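Backbone-to-sequence.
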């Protein structure tokens, strides 16, 4: 049996047989919650802080609840039912790979800003980019914000931690020479129409893979971007774009019109050769496999890398086709507003943040042309 001892002016403390001090804190539901410490002084300080919070009407987190346990509950009860599948997967992966291994066993009631600061510092030291570390901190802030709303903790300690300074990386779009070499390398390739449409319209990968024939009008040379293709629980689904501005109507340049006509002919031939009755292309997708099923993202990316290698171009993310489209538009004199609408950005500032260096180069070139026109014979 543990031996009870009273601290000065504290009748709620006792020294346990294992050498730890224990204090019992009353909860709103009439039950009590035990808190522990190796130091009597530390336990009294924590107990006084909890009593102070209680007087202010602030909540007290269960002593034994760990951050990892809370995050598991948060992901299943709040995140999964309320966000897009890819967002849930991203949050869950961030928790599993970064937060849980470092802070998962930390008691939620004891989590301090210094704990989180130490975590993000170690992540940066391990080689993670500032963007990745900022995202980890953002996920933790969102989760702990929910803990505050649920009345589990009194404050969101993650908001007290400074995020690492964002290191804006300049995009590396294809040059005009490389873009032409790339187009030559994909001539006759099954995915040629997909690559041409992506390059000329600046679509995201999910947008081009989720493009439907009902959204394409080859007579007026227009296309409506309304859906994205995502894999949810092992099945392909068409989901709404992430933001309102992602839903947009775009004009098709002639190469894209020709590519889509070629795709329609090829798809009809596939249907005749490999059709499976009513199962053929049930989502009405523009780009499908030979048996009418959606393309897998990783397979498309792999084919893209093969095409780059064939053209003698260094490895590049599929997303760079989108950046290349934007760069060419700026080079042809498009405004920030026009490029923003083409890409489906929510704000013009987003476009400026990504492509500001390109605009600066264009301004310098314009000044040189002006000088040449006025003063050079």
């Amino acid at each position: 049996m543990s031996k009870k001892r009273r601290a000065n002016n504290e009748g709620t403390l006792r020294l346990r047989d294992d050498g730890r001090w224990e204090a019992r804190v009353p909860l709103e539901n009439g039950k009590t919650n035990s808190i522990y410490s190796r130091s009597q002084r530390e336990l009294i300080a924590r107990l006084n802080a909890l009593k102070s919070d209680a007087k202010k009407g602030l909540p007290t987190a269960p002593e034994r609840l760990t951050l990892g346990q809370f995050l598991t509950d948060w992901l299943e009860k709040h995140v999964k039912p309320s966000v897009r599948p890819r967002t849930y997967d991203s949050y869950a992966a961030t928790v599993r790979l970064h937060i849980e291994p470092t802070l998962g066993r930390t008691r939620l009631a004891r989590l301090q800003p210094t704990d989180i600061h130490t975590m993000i510092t170690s992540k940066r030291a391990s080689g993670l980019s500032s963007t990745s570390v900022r995202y980890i901190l953002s996920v933790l802030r969102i989760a702990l914000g929910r803990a505050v709303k649920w009345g589990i903790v009194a404050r969101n300690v993650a908001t007290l931690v400074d995020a690492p300074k964002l290191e804006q990386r300049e995009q590396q779009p294809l040059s005009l020479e490389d873009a032409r070499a790339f187009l030559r390398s994909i001539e006759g390739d099954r995915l040629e129409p997909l690559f041409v449409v992506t390059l000329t319209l600046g679509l995201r990968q999910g947008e081009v893979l989720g493009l439907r024939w009902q959204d394409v009008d080859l007579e007026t040379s227009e296309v409506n971007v309304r859906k994205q293709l995502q894999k949810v629980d092992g099945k392909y689904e068409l989901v709404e774009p992430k933001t309102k501005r992602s839903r947009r109507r775009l004009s098709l340049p002639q190469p894209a019109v020709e590519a889509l006509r070629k795709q329609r002919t090829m798809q009809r031939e596939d249907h005749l050769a490999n059709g499976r009755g009513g199962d053929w292309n049930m989502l009405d997708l523009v780009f499908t496999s030979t048996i009418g099923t959606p393309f897998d993202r990783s397979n498309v990316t792999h084919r893209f890398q093969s095409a780059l290698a064939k053209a003698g171009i260094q490895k590049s993310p599929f997303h760079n086709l989108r950046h290349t489209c934007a760069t060419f538009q700026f080079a042809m004199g498009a405004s920030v507003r026009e490029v923003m609408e083409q890409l489906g950005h929510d704000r013009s500032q987003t476009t400026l943040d990504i492509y500001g260096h390109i605009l600066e180069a264009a301004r310098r070139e314009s000044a040189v042309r002006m000088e040449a026109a006025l003063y050079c014979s």
